[in-house]
Design goal:
The chain contains one helix and 37 strands. The chain has about 500 residues and is mainly β.
Length: about 500
Amino acid sequence: MNRTTLSLIAGTTALAAVTGFAALSAPDTPGADTAAKAAAQLPVERTSLVCPAPSTSDLAETSYTSFTPVTKGTGSGGKAELRAAAEESADAPADGKDAGKSGKDKPAKPVLTPKEPGKPVTGDSSGGDAPALVGTADGRFAPGWTVQETTEVAAGTGRGLQGVNCTAPDTDFWFPGVSTDADRTDYVHLTNPDDSAAVVDIELYGKDGVLKSAVGEGITVPPHSSEPVLLSTLTDERQTNLTVHVNVRSGRVGAAVQALDDKLGGDWLAASADPSGSLVLPGIPKDATSVRLVAFTPADADADLKVRLASPSGLITPAGHETVHVKGGMTTAVDLGDVTRGEAGSLVLTPTDRSVPVVAALRVVRGKGAKQETAFIPASRPVGTRATSADNSGKDSTLSLTAPRAAATVRVTASAGSEGGTPVSKTYTIKAGTTQDIEAPVPGGLKGTYALTVEPVSGGPVYGARTLAASEGGVPAFTVQTLPDDRGTVAVPEADEDLSVLQK
């Protein structure tokens, strides 16, 4: 084996530690032992996140919370920084020696710089000029790095509470639940954290199929910048329920939809979990007055789904909504009314017969009459090894956990507060087929905001969501963030032999 081959193996292993995705394989050799070594779970070494520009309203008040849970095996080095996307410079030297020679090369001042894992750091901004943010974390700050962006808008279109988890850049996103209706102003925010331009296609699918639009093809997002694209400019058709597909031709972006309603407030719609035959949409608030399911399948075949609600007492079938039929390539919407009926709940979708991949999201409304507010719950990945919710304040936070298949035991840890306090952990058992709004722990001597980290201990898969609530002039403002696995570790196969001796 020569140095080139060794370098390739080393590079692939490094890629696994950075991205969380890599596989090493060798061709079968007759007589050779092909049994795979057990893979070691190692912390990722680098994580990237992007946060969309929060609002154009002069009345907007935005807070950011950055948190990294303590992870074993990470060492003592590393850092995490969030900076304004538009102020990032692709030409700035990595060593910073020539920074300041021109405005272009002057590095932007970090918006948030955590000092240690296990303790949140917060920042804030006011008005409609707050930019999109891009950031990286490495070393001990990388595994499970979580940033929450929360905005309060006192009045106007989209008034209420808007929240979104900053996300890792990617190349493919599905957003069921968007709209080009006259009462809605929906933007898809595309943020490019890299040194080269990204080229993006935006496709819209309505009740009758794809909405043709050449305007959504080949959208260029310059390096270190963010582009909000108003969906109603991509088509002349006005439809209440649409699905957006963001496909990145080259490069990568972070993507999120800001859905603003003239009458029902607004919130961020995060991307649905990847298309799958079975989906879980966790954490419907128990006082929801209206719930709408929006589903779409990119497959050529139709999907027939069994609809069930995981309630505190078990799985139940909503009367009159036992199943939903989703035509291939078309968006389907079903109004479920006050499906939770005063109890915690999560929607569970499973195939009635053959499995067809589907994406889905819920539009949830609280309040009545002129005092209503909207939030969205996309289909989510399970908690997996660990998931974290940042920006909690105790009485205004609700943690909802569901175990749709088998009972599960989970450990929930409340971090230290951003301004003081000591961590506290509690263990909970979630019965099979149920959703529980648990009384989450609060740090001892809490000052500021804190994070909640969920870690399954035993049993079946667990799904989770956190609801933040606030009162805005009598309007029950709220926002919901799901809790998918933080992908803080990666499986790295053990080497069959010590390859260092072969470098000579």
